[in-house]
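Notes, p. 3: input format for complexes.
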Amino acid sequence: MIKAQRGTKDIFGDEIATWHWIFENAKNIFQNAGFNEIKTPIFEATELFNRGVGDSTDIVNKEMYTFSVGGVEKKETSITLRPENTAGVVRSFIEHNLNRQSPPQKFWYFGPMFRYERPQAGRQRQFHQVGIELFGIKEPTADVEVIMLATDFLNSIGLNNLTVELNTLGCSKCKDGYRKSIKNILAPYLNELCNDCKIRYEKNPLRILDCKNENCQKILEKDEIKEIILKDYICDECKEHFSELKNYLDELNIRYSVNKMLVRGLDYYNRTVFEIKSEALGSQSAVCGGGRYDGLVEMLGGTSTPAIGFAMGVERLYNLVNKITPQKTDFFVVSNNTKEAIKLSQKLRQNNKSVEFDLQKRKFTKQLEKAAKTAKYAIILGDDEIKQNFYSLKNLASGEQTTIKNFEELINYYAK
Ligand SMILES: [Zn+2]
Ligand SMILES: [Zn+2]
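Output follows (416 residues plus zinc ion):
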């Protein structure tokens, strides 16, 4: 027997109703705010992620599904299964010259991503993300729009008790000063940092604050280091941006706390970064991560365009939400006359009703048993019904049976 690959999962049966429900809620919330769905390819040039996610990240260094393809195009190219979707959406934004249209450009997406990680609860190698990206707005209105949509979406799927953790990483002007201070204060401890952090120290020292290594954590907790981390380095413009955002969140009664250790795992963020935690199931788990990436469009070859977005892992959301009970079909046509059953089923489906009929020529009673399990109503088409042109409609929940004169009445009766 050939089994599914480690870290991949078949999603079917009772689970599908909840997946659809999560998707529909995302679609409603984001489309109501003028966001358009975008479906970018599952694979992209490897270089896109090296540059667009950042080569100091675990994603790029350890977790990408990268392979060479030659074949028909003769030239060997390195392609990678997308580990996240921001880089792909930015690539698309640049390729289609969307910067020429009047801002903002607003997208949402839902789809599979791929990371070679150790599989654990809620973490698959093929997993799904839902997210949004908003281009062209440098004002904090974009930040609040994005955070508001994240919390509205989470509320819509029943995740309340949310806390938004916020930080500002500063802009190109003030970020460097902060980096330098972090580097200076950590310099004496360089040898004690984990191997990953030694590389981060050179490439993106802020990411050291994010390290899960116990030893690194201990170093960061030293008073003289904490003091530097918690000190305000950001410039006046960044400060203004951040406080405007906080004011908007206050107006909306969105609960937030500032966490200076929050830097997010990707290299490209600047100014606002955020995570949203949910208290669902008593656990304090992050269900959403996002931030501003004003430099990324330009870094990937486009014209300078501010942007902000977030992503959420759908498997994690799935684990937290109340599951949806799959809907029963409207009708099951119970009949020994298969031809009539098929014809009626088609007619009902063409009238936008969900209908099944017996595909196995089973006995009447067997058909009724099946109907009771899967449908709301049984339409009984016995010899009398066919001969005299009427339907017997059985409510399978109450057992109540009604005589229906013709097709129009059937449709109307059900609509009521
Ligand atoms: Zn700044
Ligand atoms: Zn470390």
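The longest strand covers residues 105-114.
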